[in-house]
Task: inverse folding
């Protein structure tokens, strides 16, 4: 694993008005690493993800202390290009949000917005992105069809492809398999196994078995605090904290 982290989170505290959502979070994410984040509802997992590409900025009464560094640069610095940050740190949400256009136009939207007009290049990006999301073989003859006609699992993989078309450096996935069938879930996990060769991946999941399958390290969050982080196999077989053990075994309380 590379020595220099891709992302460094240093003593991050996040509040929405008087309510503290994250408390003194410090961790690192390395290049070509899959980090899973687990924990009960309300533990701050999604807030943490949204802190990494400044989506929390859109929330009223948001405030934060601490730093988030991407390649050593503070993403909250005044001169940060936030749209470029969100291209570099792309996010896939729990519920797929296909745009009401064709499959092709969904994938090509981001590159077009970024200035790509050459049709051959757009075709290449669409095919490459759909292949990386394990969706190409299912939709290659349906690129002109509405994305709304895809199944839920296909829509989620298309949303992943839409992020990949912008060539991000970090992928954030917020419970991307919630509500999906086992086959669709397996395809997304297969895609993440391949994508880790090129990206840093942070996966929020409520499925501890998925975390065990699809991550290199795992972090356990509880009530806005980072309780434990370590190699996934170690954390699941010999957790250092009793609250982590209770959550993993289903005896959390």
Result:
């Amino acid at each position: 694993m590379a020595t220099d982290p891709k992302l460094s989170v240093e003593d991050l505290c996040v509040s929405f008005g008087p309510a503290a959502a994250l408390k003194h979070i410090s961790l690192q994410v390395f290049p070509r690493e899959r980090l899973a984040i687990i924990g009960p509802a309300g533990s701050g997992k999604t807030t943490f993800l949204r802190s990494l590409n400044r989506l929390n900025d859109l929330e009223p009464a948001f405030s934060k202390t601490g730093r988030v560094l991407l390649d050593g640069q503070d993403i909250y610095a005044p001169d940060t290009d936030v749209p470029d940050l969100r291209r570099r740190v792309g996010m896939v949400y729990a519920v797929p949000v296909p745009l009401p256009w064709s499959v092709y136009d969904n994938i090509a939207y981001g590159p077009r917005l970024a200035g790509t007009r050459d049709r051959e290049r757009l075709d290449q990006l669409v095919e490459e992105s759909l292949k990386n999301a394990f969706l190409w073989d299912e939709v290659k003859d349906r690129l002109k069809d509405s994305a709304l006609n895809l199944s839920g699992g296909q829509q989620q993989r298309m949303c992943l492809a839409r992020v990949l078309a912008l060539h991000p450096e970090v992928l954030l996935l917020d419970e991307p398999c919630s509500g999906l069938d086992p086959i669709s879930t397996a395809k997304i996990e297969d895609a993440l196994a391949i994508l880790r060769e090129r990206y840093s991946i942070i996966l929020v999941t409520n499925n501890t078995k998925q975390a065990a399958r699809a991550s290199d390290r795992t972090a356990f969050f509880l009530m806005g605090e980072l309780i434990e982080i370590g190699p996934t196999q170690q954390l699941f077989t010999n957790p250092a904290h009793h609250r982590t053990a209770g959550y993993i075994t289903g005896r959390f309380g």
